[in-house]
UniProtKB/TrEMBL annotation:
It is an enzyme of class 2 (transferase). This is Hexosyltransferase. It comes from the Eukaryota. It comes from Petrolisthes manimaculis. It is found in: Golgi apparatus membrane. It is a single-pass type II membrane protein.
Length: 353
């Protein structure tokens, strides 16, 4: 009787065991497949590391840190605690104290509480006298961004710009950034008003653009490493331009990946080339390598001596006009974004400021 009962139960037991055996068989196959893949990967990969080791190596892999100078700066005061609407970055040379003082006495004197500026200066290899003078100036005004690892020169302009972007990104909350030189005059109240009403609060790249320029093969503007194109990618000229904070953030957070070209404005235009930005060409930015003249509509005027700055400031105070006499020494243009960059900028309209 027991044998008969066992025989009756046996088929049922066999049926119950089959799913278990099948599951074990499937899992074994999957395990063998994964193991084979891992062994294959290890045989192909010269590193011969396991998953954990490879993951750790990837996590610690970074581009060569050739930009170690980016974090070496010196600031006085408590600017880092401020939150401002507009930050102004002014590239200056160590010995240009007269230019800085005239800017402080003229257009920078109209700076509002929600605006802050600083002059960017490389201080590496300076003589003791020049360095001492800068320290005295810093203690008096507190508006210098001193870059200890940068030897100040024309060739260092792009490094100074990039270090400035990194500094403001990590130290100051702001909405817009204006970059200019220490020979630039700004109608600051007008610029401030324009920015309050600008339709683009993000992705803004605003200035006087060029797309025709070819890389220089000689002289101080020589660019030996510009191999991307036979013309510079469209860029806002460096006498003065504005970017929104998100654009500055993009540059700062990707600083280690950015190619340093000799010209800072060309470098920025190249870095931003693939981005979907609002590129706003504005003839009221007189920011080329020499001024186009004097026009009351100009918001930004480049290549100004200290005398010109005082004259413009005095004229604005007494007549509410930038220019006592308007004049034009070279024509301007409106950028045509509907044609190739080589055809972008035709100076054929005397009515354009």
């Amino acid at each position: 009787m027991k044998n008969r009962e066992n025989m009756r139960r046996a088929p049922g037991l066999m049926i119950c065991r089959r799913p278990v055996r099948n599951a074990v068989f499937v899992l074994s196959c999957v395990g063998a497949f994964i193991l084979g893949c891992l062994l294959t990967m290890m045989s192909v990969d010269p590193m011969s590391c396991d998953i954990y080791q490879c993951t750790e190596k990837i996590k610690h892999t970074a581009p060569e840190d050739t930009n170690s100078w980016l974090g070496s700066w010196d600031r006085y005061g408590k600017v880092a605690e401020k939150s401002v609407f507009l930050i102004i970055v002014i590239l200056s040379a160590p010995g240009n104290i007269e230019q800085r003082n005239v800017m402080r006495q003229t257009w920078l004197s109209e700076e509002k509480s929600d605006t802050h500026h600083f002059f960017v200066i490389g201080t590496s290899s300076l003589s003791p006298d020049v360095n001492s003078s800068l320290q005295v100036e810093q203690k008096r005004f507190g508006d210098l961004l001193l870059l200890h690892n940068i030897v100040d020169s024309y060739q260092a302009l792009t490094k100074k710009l990039l270090a400035s972007f990194v500094y403001v990104h990590y130290s100051i909350r702001f909405r817009f950034l204006l970059k200019c030189d220490d020979d630039t005059y700004i109608q600051l109240p007008q610029l401030h008003k324009e920015l309050k009403n600008v339709p683009y609060k993000q992705r803004l790249y605003w200035g006087f653009f060029d797309g025709r320029a070819t890389p220089k093969k000689s002289g101080p503007w020589k660019e030996e490493d510009y191999i991307l194109c036979d013309r510079y990618l469209p860029y806002a000229l460096g006498g003065g331009y504005v970017v929104s904070s998100d654009v500055a953030t993009f540059v700062a957070t990707n600083s280690k990946y950015l190619k340093i070209y000799k010209n800072e404005d060309i470098s920025l235009g190249t870095w931003l080339a693939p981005l979907d930005l609002h590129r706003v060409h504005d003839p009221r930015f007189d920011t080329e390598y020499k001024s186009r003249g004097c026009n009351n509509k100009y918001i930004v005027t480049h290549k100004q001596s200290t005398i010109h700055m005082r004259e413009k400031f005095s004229s604005l105070k007494t007549t509410n006009l930038l220019c006592r006499d308007q004049f034009q020494v070279r024509k301007s243009y409106l950028y045509n974004w509907n044609v190739p960059p080589s055809q972008c900028c035709v100076r054929n309209n005397t009515s354009v400021p």
